[in-house]
Write a structure and sequence with these properties.
- It is built from 14 helices and 13 strands.
- It has 360 residues and is an alpha/beta fold.
- The protein has two domains: 2-162 and 343-358, Glycogen Phosphorylase B (Rossmann fold, 3-Layer(aba) Sandwich), CATH 3.40.50; 169-337, Rossmann fold.
- The strands form two sheets. It has a seven-stranded parallel beta sheet, sandwiched between helices. Strands 10-9-8-11-12-13 form a six-stranded parallel beta sheet, with helices on both faces.
């Protein structure tokens, strides 16, 4: 298969895109890819490191607060469409795939104009503006959450789940002992990521030293930005503070309770691995979509939630310890998580792509 894929801005778009490429390559090892991303966002570093051919375009999202800036956005959009048309013609793909972010707009529009097959994927419960706009123009749309069925043309939608889920299930387990932890005590994994996490990290820095119980352990992943400041705090011996864990899903396989944001990729891994969780959605994202992502789990008793505006040191510790030692509640969450997942998400997307390509 020859495929152009575009996704940008955040890992929540980029890593599902890479999961789709990996699945295509698994089935068709001789496949060739071109990744089109923005010139100044994280995909420009991540994608080339994976050995995937990468081309960048200068493109920006519309600014709702400063309309004057949008003149530049429109100018870049026209310029990028011209570049995308040339890239697509030269590569001559079997299909062009968009996996979220404003960078996908000129890529998919150009592909459609040139008569190529197109597919987009939406990870969140609240579709991004780019995918809403493109949905009327593409051949098929993959969605991760059933709650987004209503937002797209029904004849185009395929409920695929998030392709990151397959990678999570296939990940190599990380043993607790490899991190110097006890194999016999329950484990809480706290991961806030980088987007607006400093506020929550500060509450965690103040609350975790107040833990008096020693019959469970905590791994607190701060993110690299806050680590040097947080590690200066004196934590109890059962709290391990790390800046980052490579292959996080491997540790999730041995986690009893996770406290985290509610990004689409994180939730796909929680669902796939059936990890009970307390979700603290980031309020700093468009359309408050992390809250709505979280509520898809909370409404079916598959997770608990604390909104950041309600977060205090005592609320966090009380909810964490009450849930961690409520085995009936933990088992209920695991059971309910099993009703939400798609075990073969990337496989379903691959089959959808093949169906589009082979359609006469």
């Amino acid at each position: 298969m020859r495929a152009i894929i575009s996704a940008g801005g955040t890992g929540g778009h980029i890593y599902p895109a890479l999961a789709i490429l990996n699945k295509i390559k698994e089935h068709e090892p001789d496949s060739e890819f071109l990744y089109i991303g923005t010139h100044n966002r994280m995909e420009k570093d991540i994608v080339p490191q994976k050995g995937i051919p990468f081309s960048s375009i200068e493109i920006y999202g519309f600014d709702r607060h400063n309309l004057f800036k949008n003149f530049k956005v429109i100018k870049c959009l026209f310029k990028s469409k011209s570049k995308c048309k040339k890239l697509i013609k030269d590569f001559n793909p079997d299909i062009v795939i968009g996996v979220g972010g404003y960078v996908t707009v000129p890529v998919i529009l150009s592909a459609k104009k040139l008569g190529y097959h197109t597919f987009i994927h939406e990870q969140n419960s609240v579709p991004g503006a780019s995918n809403i706009y493109l949905s009327k123009k593409v051949d098929k749309i993959g969605i991760s959450m059933k709650s987004t069925l209503k937002d797209f043309p029904s004849d185009k939608v395929v409920f695929t789940g998030n392709p990151c889920s397959e990678g999570a299930k296939a990940s190599t387990p990380i043993s607790k002992s490899s991190l110097g932890l006890s194999e016999n005590k329950k484990l809480v994994l706290i991961v806030m990521g980088s987007l607006g996490a400093s506020t929550v990290n500060e509450i965690l820095r103040k609350s975790l030293p107040k833990i008096t119980r020693d019959d469970y352990e905590i791994v607190f992943v701060t993110g690299k930005k806050d680590y040097e400041d947080i590690i200066k705090t004196e934590f109890p011996s059962n709290v391990k503070v790390l800046p980052y864990i490579d292959g996080m899903s491997g540790l999730m396989k041995n986690t009893d309770l996770m406290i985290t944001r509610a990004g689409a990729s994180t939730l796909s891994e929680i669902i796939a691995l059936k990890v009970p969780s307390i979700l603290i959605p980031s309020p700093y994202v468009p359309n408050n979509h992390q809250y709505i992502n979280a509520m898809d789990l909370v409404k079916v008793n598959a997770a608990d939630i604390i909104e950041e505006k309600n977060l205090t040191e005592s609320i966090l510790l009380d909810k964490m310890e009450n849930l961690l030692f409520d085995n009936n509640k933990l088992e209920e969450m695991k059971k309910n998580l099993s009703t939400l997942g798609v075990d073969n998400s990337a496989e379903l997307i691959y089959k959808t792509l093949k169906d589009i390509i082979e359609r006469k």
